[in-house]
Design brief:
Blueprint: H1 4-26, H2 33-52, H3 62-72, H4 85-99, H5 103-110, E1 118-120, H6 125-135, E2 140-143, H7 154-162, E3 170-175, H8 181-188, E4 197-201, E5 227-231, E6 247-251, H9 258-266, E7 272-277, E8 301-306
Parallel strand pairs: 1-2, 2-3, 3-4, 4-5, 5-6, 6-7, 7-8
Helix pairs in contact: 6-7, 7-8
Length: 313
């Protein structure tokens, strides 16, 4: 019985001879070595495309499909505090683009809850509800990316209602948008048992939010938190959960005060500390009662910048 190679090879050779003959008849420039190489390259692309027509997506092992999509969507970094908000937005855009490739790919992504873990809480409430439904029991990353002219601040209050019953799934909250401050505080005040990362910017326009809310709510139960990035605020030193922090990032507006130093003295698990303050004490008397020693035995990385008044004593 003739082997497959013995059958195919002569057919391919005759095809190539006919192809080069047709190329010469069409143009003398197509008979050059460089032109022939380009013809081979074109044939290779064409053959690969035709071959892929016979490779069924559904025949690939599921774990291989998850690996490919996971790498494309940067899925293993969704809860990484160092991943930029733009990275989260790229995940969302790439997810939308991949869904448009084919109905098969779309159906696969819709049936896999882990691809829907990143939720833009500034999106319309119906979009948030739909994404939560698709995520099912997957750990959630809530972030805000409210473009200028986007949803009003009140939309964040409505978003909280659709998150009721999901507090045990929230692993990351990243809301540098000041408009989301009210929303984040309300979510935090009930306690989040699986929260690992919190990024929160304090609101400055108090007319826009419920003034009954204060940062005292951050004393809520957050037993798993490891990364805190705060702009314009810091938690009370009495909050038990700060003892578990491994990364603490504090940025202006920020004053160096006794309460801040007391906070730092309790963060004995810190591996990384970033402290940028735009105001220091005006005199040594202001620091009376401050801790005499701040011991951070596990600290590996530190970045401190403080603007001290020139006339400070």
């Amino acid at each position: 019985m003739t082997s497959l190679q013995e059958f195919v090879q002569p057919q391919v050779d005759r095809f190539m001879d006919d192809l080069f003959r047709a190329a010469r008849e069409r143009s003398s420039t197509l008979s050059s070595p460089a032109a022939k190489i380009k013809i081979f390259d074109t044939i290779e692309v064409t053959i690969r495309r035709r071959r892929n027509e016979y490779v069924s997506f559904n025949q690939l092992p599921t774990d291989i499909i998850h690996l490919i999509f996971g790498m494309t969507l940067n899925l293993n970094r969704i809860h990484d505090y160092e991943l930029s908000l733009e990275g989260l937005e790229q995940h969302r855009r790439h997810l939308s683009n991949i869904r448009c490739v084919s109905s098969v790919w779309n159906a696969f992504l819709l049936s896999s809850p882990k691809y829907w873990c990143a939720i833009n809480i500034a999106a319309p409430e119906k979009v948030v509800e739909l994404t939560l439904a698709r995520a099912q029991q997957t750990p959630l990353c809530l972030y805000s990316n409210r473009e200028e002219g986007g949803n009003p601040l009140s939309s964040f209050r409505h978003t909280k209602s659709v998150l009721l019953g999901k507090t045990t799934q929230i692993r990351s909250i990243r809301t540098p948008d000041k408009g989301a401050y009210d929303f984040a505080i309300r979510i935090l005040c009930g306690g989040l048992p699986d929260l690992r990362t919190l990024e929160l910017t304090k609101a400055t326009d108090w007319d826009e939010i419920d003034q009954a809310l204060t940062l005292e709510h951050i004393r809520a139960d957050l037993p798993e938190i490891r990364h805190l990035s705060a702009v314009g605020w810091y938690p009370n030193a009495e909050a038990m959960w700060i003892q578990n922090l491994q990364v603490l990032i504090l940025k202006p507006p920020m004053d160096i005060s006794i309460s801040l130093l007391r906070l730092l003295s309790t963060c004995r698990s810190l591996l990384k500390l970033t402290l940028h303050a735009d105001n220091g004490p005006e005199s040594a008397e202001e620091m009376t009662g401050a801790p005499s020693l701040i011991d951070l035995p596990r600290l590996q990385e530190i970045d401190i910048e403080v603007d001290i008044p020139l006339d400070a004593g």
